[in-house]
Amino acid sequence: MSRVIVITGPSGVGKGTLIRLLREQVPELGLSVSATTRAPRPGEADGVEYHFLSEDEFVEHIAHGDFVEHAQYAGRRYGTLRAELERRASSGEPVALEIEVQGARQIRDAIPGALLIFIAPPSREALRERLVGRGTDDAEVVERRLAVAEEELAAAGEFAKVIVNDRLEDAVRDLVSVVRRGLAHPID
């Protein structure tokens, strides 16, 4: 399998922004497109941001063993399709996964050589401000995401690499450094 880089952390911590900026500086790094049962947000396209599946389709994929990892998060399902990783592996392209902590734990068990990186907010209040400020979820969903975030923040110690996304430039620099070292010296 090609090198798998897992980037995890609570919703709203800036994983997507960090990965976008990481890929600008490490262009050989591909991005795995996750599957989800949540509805597309404005501007999102199926197969680009996510593979958008119905609940029944997702459950069928689980039954067929099609996921390398899958989890429930804030009332929705998310997962990484095995075919997505196999396609990347066949080309030798290193691949980043932006996934939830539950999924990161599954990847750690399934792919022991994966590089797992936890992105943390500078504070819980900063995380709340980011979730509210992005305006994509109603108050109830934000509260559910914050409740899950509490549990996820407690899991940061499970990861060898933790990057605090306080100042974006610093977080990107740290992430690029960790990923470049990981690609240069993979753990097998």
Descriptive notes:
- By secondary structure, the protein is of the alpha/beta class.
- The protein has one domain: P-loop containing nucleotide triphosphate hydrolases (Rossmann fold), CATH 3.40.50.300.
- 44% of the residues lie in helices and 20% in strands.
- The chain has 7 helices and 9 strands.
- The protein has a 5-stranded parallel β-sheet, with helices on both faces. A 4-stranded mixed β-sheet has the order 4-3-6-5.
- Strand 5 and strand 6 form a beta hairpin.
- Helix 5 runs antiparallel to helix 6.
- The termini are close together.
- The mean pLDDT is 90.
Question: Helix segment count?
Answer: 7
- CATH homologous superfamily heading: P-loop containing nucleotide triphosphate hydrolases
Poorly predicted tracts of residues: none
Report the sheet with the most strands, covering strand number, pairing sense and barrel closure. Answer: 5 strands, parallel
Query: What fraction, in percent, of the residue positions are helical?
Result: 40-55%
Radius of gyration: 16 Å
Terminus-to-terminus distance: 10 Å
Into which percentage range does the β-strand content fall?
15-25%
Number of domains: 1
User: What average pLDDT do the residues reach?
Assistant: 90
DSSP, total strands: 9
User: What shape does the CA trace take?
Assistant: globular
CATH class: Alpha Beta
Biggest sheet, strands in spatial order? Answer: 2-7-1-8-9
Oligomerization state of this entry? Answer: single chain
